[in-house]
Amino acid sequence: MGFGLLLKSVLVALLVVPSLAFAVGKCERLVATGAADNPPFLWRDPQNPQRLLGANAELLKQIGKSLGVKVELLYSGDASKALDEVRSGRVDILADARLVTQRLDEMDFVHPSIASLQTVAWVRNEPGFFYATRDDLAGHDGRFVSTSRFGREFDAFARQRLTLQADASLTQAMEQLVAGKTDYVLHERYSALAGMGALAILDKVQRLEPPVLSHEMHLAISHNSACNDAWLRGQLALKMTELRAAGVPEQLLASNLERWKLQQVGTAKASPQ
Q: What family does the database annotate (predicted)?
């Protein structure tokens, strides 16, 4: 190799190496959080209550491993407190973000989404409930969990067309349904399956299709996170695209739904009679 070619190679290396070092991002550790009471997406680890388990936790850890970044899923409270922690930048990533316009000036949403969350009407597992659209719920008595958030459009529709009562928990709402004291319960599909598995009533109810509404669940990076840079945003989007194409989020939801059910069975057996 001639001196001129050797010098050119050295100069190229000096230019490329620093840019590659910058390309891998400035953070070796990312902290994420989310609503801690939403299996199979996220829930508290019974062995270490300061950490979160669930499909979204596993998904983020898979992404982090492929990027060479350690990801920790930490408990920060309910959905509101989790949002506050991410908004402030004390936590980098919200692992279960709903894309709403007022959040766009606080965090960057990763596309594609993790999953589509479908709020469906659950009815007793018996014939006779005609249903083709959500308009067919009019004239029937329904219930929902008081902490549910449906969005302005559906709230307006419900005020005009539906008869709904709020319950403090999914357990209460489903007990009313099975007892015949209400006609349907509105609840997100996967969350309802997790809750009803512990109640052992899955054979007594069925969900109506199509959903009454749906929205997308995303990863979102705080604008105030010290780790939020173009490289991280680009890599998260790339990895999410690959994982969605491979059906990984759906696989993780299914496996963590079973994981949650088994955990509840174990907890029930361990409880004193």
A: Belongs to the bacterial solute-binding protein 3 family.
CA distance 159 to 138: 11
Amino acid identity, residue 19?
A: S
DSSP calls for 125-191: SSS----SSGGGGTTSEEEEETT----HHHHHHHHHH-EEEEESSHHHHHHHHHTTS-SEEEEEHHH
CB within 8 A of 272, min separation 6: which ones?
A: none
**pLDDT > 70? residue 8:** no
Structure tokens, 185: 């319960």
Phi and psi, residue 130, nearest 5° = -75, 130
CATH 3.40.190.10 placement within the chain: 23-115+215-270, 117-214
Select from 3.40.50.720, 1.10.150.650, 3.40.1790.10, 3.40.190.10 the CATH code of 23-115+215-270: 3.40.190.10
Instruction: Give CA–CA dist 130/49, Å, rounded.
Output: 44
Domain 117-214 has CATH 3.40.190.10: yes
Question: pLDDT tens digits for 159-187?
Answer: 999 999 999 999 999 999 999 999 999 99
Calculate the dihedral angle through the C-alpha atoms of 95, 105, 117, 79, rounding to the nearest 10 degrees.
Answer: 50
Cα separation, 51 vs 144, whole angstroms: 29
- What's residue 265's pLDDT? 76
pLDDT in tens, 71-123: 999 999 999 999 999 999 999 999 999 998 889 999 999 999 999 999 999 99
